Amino acid sequence: MTDLMAATGLGDLTSGGLQEIITISPLQFSSSTSTFRINDTIETLVYRLFIDYWSSEISYEQYYNACAPTHCTYLYEKRLNVLYAVTIFLTVVNGLLLGLRYVVPIFVRL
User: Fold this and answer.
1) Under a CB-based contact definition with an 8 Å cutoff, are residues 29 and 38 in contact?
2) Contact criterion met (CB below 8 Å) for 34 and 52
3) Domain extent at residue 25
């Protein structure tokens, strides 16, 4: 125990009534239920992410029933692309200019 822990009382869990609040006991290791070995290193445990068993059973029906939504909606957001906007603008301007090139002389002759 370091001097800092001794000075603050952190090293002694029985001080300050902590013994009545928490009970600390060692973990019980069972080789029949665990995929880890008793002498695995911390590195091995971290590499395997401390996961002893991973259940990958997925049921969307159970998820949907648990959520029980009254209705489903989705939102589709599309940001305006600058290149697309410039292209549309130039197309409209060129279309108007082309149309006016043929329409204006007809109205001027009248």
Assistant:
1) yes
2) yes
3) 3-109
Return d(Cα 44, Cα 36) in angstroms, integer.
9
Residue 16 CA from chain centroid, whole number:
41
Structure tokens belonging to residue 44: 């091995």
Gap between the Cα atoms of 106 and 75, Å rounded: 49
Could you identify the residue written with the tokens 């305006």?
A: 80
Structural domains in the chain (count): 1
**pLDDT tens profile 95-108:** 999 999 988 888 88
Let me know: does 34 contact 28? Beta carbons within 8 Å. no
Query: What residue has token string 């082309």?
Result: 98
Q: Which two tokens stand for residue 50?
A: 């401390």
Model pTM score: 0.29
Contact in structure between 19 and 13 (CB atoms under 8 Å):
yes
